[in-house]
Every structure is written in structure tokens, then in C-alpha cells.
Amino acid sequence: DGVALNGALPADCLGSYIRLPDTLGDRPCYERLASSGVRRSFLFFSDGRWVVAETMDAGAQPFAYVEDAAPTPHEVDRDGAPWMVPADESAGQDFEEVQGAPAWCAYLANSDLIGR
To answer: What pTM was computed for the model?
Structure first.
């Protein structure tokens, strides 16, 4: 199974993610399905938040995150805490709320992942 990350997030975040056998913080981890030449992205739980980053490491620089302790990313409350992204001129040091359309995860069954 997996999830689809949608909304007004950086391109490195958007797309379909397949669940990995690994866990972090007793929660599932996901890797984005991407064609060759596209930066790898992982979605995982760390320090009380769901994080999208280039490596699956608690110390990785996030592309985006949301503070929510949901058991899976598709259970994050869409009306709760906003997804946060690096501020334009902060080089990833400061984060701001996603502007425009909200961001959210949707559950994908294995049959939904075929052909993505």
C-alpha cells in the first residue's frame, strides 16, 4: 500500500509513495515513486511530525513537514496543523505555512499504485 501527497507543496514532495518495510517511531515509512533522474524523497515520522526529506534520517533537512502524531500520514487531520515548507529566502532554516491549496495525504491501495 502507499499514499499520495497532494496540494501546494514543493515538487520534491508531491506524488505517490510506496510503503517500505522499515518503520521509524513505530510508524510506517514511504518512498516516492519517481522516474530516473528525479530526486528521491521519503515520507516518515520523526519527533512528533510527518516529514518529507531526501533521506530517511531524523536529522535530514525537510522539504516539508506537518506536526501531527497520526499513526499514518493519510490520517493526519486536514483541518489541524498546516504543512510547513522552507521560507523562500531562508535556505531551509525557517519554515512557513503552505500557501494556496492545502496539502494532504490520501491512502493508496496496492491496486491504486499499479501504473503510477
So the answer is: 0.89
7 sits in the region (left: phi over 0; alpha: psi -120 to 50; else beta) called left
| Cα separation, 57 vs 63, whole angstroms | 13
The edge-to-edge listing of strands for the beta sheet with 62-66 is 95-97, 84-86, 62-66, 49-53, 42-46, 27-32, 15-24, 2-6, 104-108
pLDDT tens for 7-21 read: 888 888 999 999 999
Give residue 105's region: left, alpha or beta (phi > 0; psi -120 to 50).
beta
Handedness of CA 47, 50, 55, 60 (dihedral sign): negative
CA-CA distance, 17 to 8, in Å (whole number)? 17
Q: Which residues contact 45 (CB under 8 A, 6 or more apart)?
A: 24, 25, 27, 29, 51
Residue 37, number of CB atoms within 10 A of its CB: 5
22-53: pLDDT as tens digits? 898 889 999 999 777 778 899 999 999 999 99
